[in-house]
């Protein structure tokens, strides 16, 4: 994530702020222009100026609608088609936390230039999100919401936005890392697999890298939950769960690629540029734009010293490691596949992918 300053007073602002804590200006973000602006509440929406997202007051969404957009929602919120009962304050807050994480996902999708609809797309397989909670009925029946992806629809159980519930699941499932943004990055990978790989020439390279996805998915997952990850999974998979099925391996690797690029962008914004520990290693210049590098090794070369430094920082505060992963050569090959796939998309698009003014 890049760094933001209040356009009125230059105070440091977080990506999520609706207001400057220093000068009190209302703030809004224009996603296609990657610009934070002062929101003039009286004039917003009139005379062709962009309107604030209709979710601004409800859950604090600070994005603006695209200019001339039909939707009353911003680019991120317009992709959400089902939400929990907002009269339930706890559920509304959980949904709001999920939308916060989702805006960071959309920020990255735009920066990568991945194909994305700028108006609500109701066609078969189009990307959309259902952010819902479990329901219990008076007759004792329970309707449980399963987090996952199916044919463009990404469902996330809003209970994941409760830190205590998510932490309990994280330890039960033996995961070193479980976050809202991680869920979004993982699930959207399944959508882009359908869109960029299924039925395309690249599928044979994908199978060579991740394995044949035609093996029975339901049985593979069942076996994973009974037996756990394959032994020695650390050599080939970024997480234990990635060893469950080639689709999950791709999704975990894709999410990891997003973690790396997003982390490197943040590091650049704050001038963090740790160097490799080996005294003979060449000095690494700061990466200008991690969303557009020609060689994935450039990312990894910068990422490893950064994670070593960040882990040391966390340990100095007595908290768990920032980066509880190890990148093996095999995982690096998989990250290269994701990098090349996204780069091919960037090159196939002539000019900006969106009609950004
Ligand atoms: Zn300010
Ligand atoms: Zn919004
Ligand atoms: Zn998955």
Shape: globular
Order of helices and strands: EEEEHEHEEEEEHHHHHHH
Radius of gyration: 21 Å
SS strand fraction: 5-15%
Amino- and carboxy-terminal Cα gap: 22 Å
Q: Helical segment tally?
A: 9
Helix content: 25-40%
Mean pLDDT equals 92
Contiguous runs where pLDDT drops below 50 for at least 5 residues:
none
Describe the sheet with the most strands. Answer: 4 strands, mixed
Give a structural overview.
The protein has 357 residues and is of the alpha/beta class. It has three domains: 1-67, no CATH class; 75-196; 199-276 and 284-357, no CATH class. 39% of the residues lie in helices and 9% in strands. The chain is built from nine helices and ten strands. The protein has helices spanning 56-59, 89-112, 163-172, 180-196, 203-210, 217-227, 246-269, 296-316, 329-348, and strands spanning 4-5, 12-13, 27-30, 35-38, 80-82, 128-132, 135-136, 142-143, 148-150, 153-157. Strands 5-6-10-9 form a four-stranded mixed sheet, with helices on one face. It has a two-stranded antiparallel ribbon with strand order 1-2. α4 (180-196) crosses α7 (246-269). The model has no long low-confidence stretch (mean pLDDT 92). Bound molecules: zinc ion (3 copies). One zinc ion is lined by residues 186, 190, 248, 251.
SSE map:
Elements: E1 4-5, E2 12-13, E3 27-30, E4 35-38, H1 56-59, E5 80-82, H2 89-112, E6 128-132, E7 135-136, E8 142-143, E9 148-150, E10 153-157, H3 163-172, H4 180-196, H5 203-210, H6 217-227, H7 246-269, H8 296-316, H9 329-348
Parallel strand pairs: 5-6, 6-10
Antiparallel strand pairs: 1-2, 3-4, 7-8, 9-10
Helix pairs in contact: 2-4, 4-7, 7-8, 7-9
This protein binds zinc ion (3 copies).
